[in-house]
Structures are given as C-alpha cells and as structure tokens.
C-alpha cells in the first residue's frame, strides 16, 4: 500500500506526460475529491497510507484527466467570484476572465438584469447575489444549460429573483432591463482546431463558436439590445481578446453611446461596454 503523497507524485507524472498545464494543482484537487476532504487538507493526509477505495477512485479521476476531461467536470463544480457553481459538459466552464465583466457591471447601480446565453448562470447569479434587491432573467438556447443555471440560482439562494428560460437570442425576451450582460460564443470556426482539448472535446461547441467569424453574437446584441433596455441602460459583453476594434465598430454603427473596451488582469481586451442613447 502506498501513501497519499506517493499516489499524488505518480499522478503528477501521468498528468505532465499528458500535457496538462498545471499537473501538481490538478493532482492535489483530484486527490482531495477522491478522499472527500478539503483541498487545503491534502498535505495533512499526504503521509498516510491511502485506502484502497480512495486509491481506485483517484486512479479513475487521473485517467479521465489525462484524457483532458476538465477538473471542474470531474468534481462537478467550479468557483467563480467567490461562489460555488455546479458545472457539466452542458455549459461553458466559468473562467476568471469573466470576472472583469462582473466588476464593471457592479460599478454602477441596476435593479434588473437580462443575461443572454446564460450557460451555467454564473454572470446572472453572481450579479443578483451581489445586488440583493435586483431581479433578473437568464436565457439560453440550450435546455440543459437552462436547467443548470436554474440549479445554480438555487444553490446560491437567488432563485426567487431569477427567471431562466429557453430562447434563441432575444426571441422570447419581453420587457426592458437596466442591464444586459452576455458571454456569447466568440471563437471563429477556423479557430476551433487550435483550442485546448478541454474546450474542444468536453465543452459545448455552441457556447464556443458561432460556426462563422465569431462576431454573430455581437451583431445580435448591437442590433437588438437597445429595444430591451430601460432609458440610460447599459450593456456588457465578454469578447475574444483580439476582437475589440471590430466589436466597437459594430456598436458604433448600431448607434450605441460610447462603446468602449475593458481589459482583464492580463491587460487584454475582454469586455465591450456600451450605453443606450439618451
């Protein structure tokens, strides 16, 4: 029988050989999940012999990770803006870059939110959790994503203030909102061959690419968004880091006020912001 530390060393070697970016981190998180302990306690159990059932569970998790199944899918959740979100292969894995949009949206007051393409619900749910008097609607073309977003609204105690329903862009949307937010599919079809196996093979393709030039979502938001905003309403959408100038032009041509770009922590264009004309 080996110790937990020895099992983790062997796992790190397998993950590194498979090309996983941060094998030590993933090995630690998956060991914690297999042993059903908090990740911060892995060092405490490291010297101990690893029980056979935990070792078997850990080996299975590591095998799946070497096939590039995302860690979040293996443990069933992901942290985003300090909260837990349940995730699966039906929704895009919440990413730290999207927190740039959250910070920007929270910088000014709002009482109502429309989240187009809500996916896991991480944007809508986070904004509602941070703004306790706000209400919101999340829509997604995927029924499975709507169910996931609804579950995350319950998990984070905002379900009484969130309505989630299936819609193709603005097709089923009614009413006007202070804030429109979105993280649309922004990869061009030609870019899909170069994305990581975690994205290409295990996340919903429709959440990644529009099967065209990557700008379809921004044309929809720019051309239709104003009619669903209250006076002085605002729009925030995540973008691909190389799309900024093209997306700004789309919003300028559609008559939005002051379209502008915000950068993420790496200094790359990440969010388009625009105001409804007065």
User: Largest sheet, order of strands side by side?
Assistant: 5-4-3-6-7-9-8
Text of the CATH class of the largest domain: Alpha Beta
What general outline do the C-alpha atoms trace? elongated
Which sequence of SSEs, written as H and E, runs from N to C?
HHHHHEEHEHEHEEHHEHEE
C-alpha Rg, in Å?
Answer: 20 Å
The fold-level CATH name of the largest domain is: Rossmann fold
Look at the structure and give the mean pLDDT. Answer: 93
Q: Tally the helices: what do you get?
A: 11
How are the secondary structure elements laid out?
Elements: H1 4-17, H2 23-35, H3 42-45, H4 52-66, H5 71-75, E1 77-80, E2 83-86, H6 99-105, E3 112-116, H7 122-130, E4 135-140, H8 143-155, E5 162-166, E6 177-182, H9 197-202, H10 216-224, E7 229-238, H11 244-253, E8 257-263, E9 269-275
Helix pairs in contact: 1-2, 1-4, 2-4
Descriptive tags:
2 domains; Rossmann fold; two-stranded antiparallel sheet; 278 residues; alpha/beta; elongated
């Amino acid at each position: 029988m080996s110790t937990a530390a020895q099992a983790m060393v062997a796992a790190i070697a397998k993950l590194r050989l498979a090309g996983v970016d941060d094998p030590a981190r993933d090995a630690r998180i998956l060991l914690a999940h297999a042993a059903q302990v908090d990740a911060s306690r892995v060092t405490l159990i490291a010297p101990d012999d690893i029980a056979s059932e935990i070792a078997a569970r850990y080996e299975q998790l590591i095998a799946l990770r070497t096939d590039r199944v995302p860690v979040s899918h293996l443990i069933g959740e992901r942290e985003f803006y300090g909260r837990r979100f349940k995730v699966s292969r039906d929704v895009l894995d919440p990413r730290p870059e999207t927190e740039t949009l959250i910070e920007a949206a929270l910088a000014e007051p709002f009482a109502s939110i429309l989240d187009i393409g809500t996916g896991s619900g991480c944007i809508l749910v986070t904004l509602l959790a941070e703004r306790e008097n706000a209400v919101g609607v999340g829509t997604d073309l995927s029924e499975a994503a709507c169910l996931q977003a609804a579950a995350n609204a319950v998990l984070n105690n905002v379900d009484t203030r969130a309505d989630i329903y299936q819609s193709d862009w603005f097709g089923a949307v009614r009413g006007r909102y202070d804030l429109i937010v979105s993280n649309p599919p922004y990869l061009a079809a030609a870019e899909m061959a170069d994305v990581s196996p975690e994205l290409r093979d295990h996340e919903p393709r429709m959440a990644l690419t529009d099967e065209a030039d990557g700008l379809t979502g921004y044309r929809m938001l720019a051309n239709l968004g104003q009619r669903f905003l209250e006076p002085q309403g605002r729009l925030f959408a995540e973008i691909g880091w190389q799309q900024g100038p093209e997306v700004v032009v789309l919003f300028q041509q559609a008559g939005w006020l002051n379209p502008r770009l915000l950068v993420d922590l790496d200094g790359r264009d990440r969010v388009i912001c625009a105001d409804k004309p007065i």
